[in-house]
Amino acid sequence: MDNDAINIVKPAILPVLDPAFRPAALMVRTFRQFVSDAVDPVTIQLALEQADGSVFHFTTEILPESHPLTLNVYTYTYIERLVKFLLWSRGGFRIHFAGPKFMADGLQKHFRETATGQFDSNIIGERIYDRPIEVVHATAADLPPEKASTQPLGRHLDGCRIGFDLGGSDRKVAAVIDGKVVFSEETVWDPYPQPDPQYHFDGLMDSLRKAAAHLPRVDAIGGSAAGVYVNNRVKVASLFRGVPADVFNRRVKELFFEVQRAWNGVPFEVVNDGEVTALAGSMALGKNAVLGLALGTSLAAGYVTRDGNITSWLNELAFAPVDYSPGAPRDEWSGDYGCGVQYFSQQAVGRLLPAAGISTDPKLPLPEKLRHVQELMSRDDERARRIYQTLGTYLGYAIAHYADFYDFDHVLVLGRVTSGPGGDVILDGAKAVLGREFPALAKRIAFQVPDEKDKRHGQAVAAASLPRIAR
């Protein structure tokens, strides 16, 4: 994707270790400025349809067909990246496209014929909504009406509960009695490459038993994990990426029902880890309109609305693009470029090590590489500081981009990557970007950071509040 128009949009604050970074927020702002200066811009209306009938609308404008950039890759990049972000943030299998037919046809071809488009269609369309992604060209009058619902999540702390959080490098568990934590533990594990789901089952059961040993009884179990879960069924989850498809269908889809039966059928609920991130923040703050971002093995995101509820959105921002540079790093799973996982996770730290001048054994697992960087940072090593400064710059521009899609006043930032003094450097960098490039957002948005223990265990505690105990 060689495009001079893209390359000229340089950030005012360059990431110290990644001068090629071209933030999506600036690309969108620059493109919209082109459109506002043009005569007769063209309105595009999108409607994303989910299997349950939910429909989400989004409206934007592009340059008229007579403009020299209309048929340029810049315009197509703007639309394709916008649609990708909407798919991974909102979700949906059918995209109703009211705009130029050649663009609708181009998007449909993208999802049918390109490797990254096929990945999105397979994961979002087929595995989550049971059908491939479809792009339907329509007129504005033909768009299905917007239909959305929200619902409360968790906040139940009565009784004796266990909460767990399953990450890519560790699993966390907490025992809670009437809202008070009486035990919490973190255990290292390696779920990604495991082909036998018995590994996942045994690991989770081990953590649950340890928590149960600190309770007089177990009234309910709640959990969070990376992936998409519908009524406790596993639709798609990176934790099980090493499991063959036939074994996944036979064992993994119903794995949490198997765990529930092992605990005598107590109330049991598991949801996406990003949702629990946002819930944890909302509970701790006593406030709503929260976007939660957990920087760990991957990027987990969740959103609590202004009325304190959650939506049916996917919020899988690990796959949502934040960097439009043609040479941006590619996600190892989807193969796409500029996606959030490469900027806000252990993978980001590992990727930046060479640029920072830090040498490690290439075979060293990412959690160990992160731990090494954290140790260096504790000694005020300038090389480690540059990594955190780079992450902070990334985060500031990404939050500005997220604000185009989410209505939030609070950003909760937590996860293993933010532990230690490096976390403060990340936040300082993000605030500097907002203050310089997006002053209106800087005045409106408040950053929230849990204390060190809650950074590591807050999700497990919030997860414990998910199930309702029948009385």
Description:
With 471 residues, this protein is an alpha/beta fold. The chain has two domains: 38-142; 151-471, Nucleotidyltransferase, domain 5 (2-Layer Sandwich), CATH 3.30.420.40. It has 15 helices and 15 strands. It has helices at residues 4-7, 24-37, 73-89, 101-113, 115-129, 198-212, 245-252, 255-262, 273-285, 346-356, 366-378, 382-402, 421-437, 439-444, 452-464; strands at 42-49, 55-62, 94-98, 134-137, 160-166, 170-177, 180-188, 220-225, 228-230, 233-236, 268-272, 290-295, 299-304, 410-414, 446-448. A five-stranded mixed sheet has the order 7-6-5-8-11. A four-stranded mixed sheet has the order 2-1-3-4. A four-stranded mixed sheet has the order 13-12-14-15. Strand 12 (290-295) and strand 13 form a beta hairpin. Helix 4 (101-113) crosses helix 5.
User: Roughly how much helix do the residues carry, as a percent range?
Assistant: 25-40%
How many separate structural domains? 2
Quaternary state, please?
single chain
Mean pLDDT: 92
CATH H-level superfamily of the largest domain: ATPase, nucleotide binding domain
| Rg from Cα | 22 Å
Distance between the termini: 60 Å
Mind telling me the CATH class of the largest domain? Alpha Beta
Which shape, going by the Cα principal axes?
Answer: globular
Q: Which structural class do you get from the secondary structure elements?
A: alpha/beta
Please provide the ordered H/E string of secondary-structure elements: HHEEHEHHEEEEHEEEHHEHEEHHHEHHEH
Q: Could you give a short account of the major beta sheet?
A: 5 strands, mixed
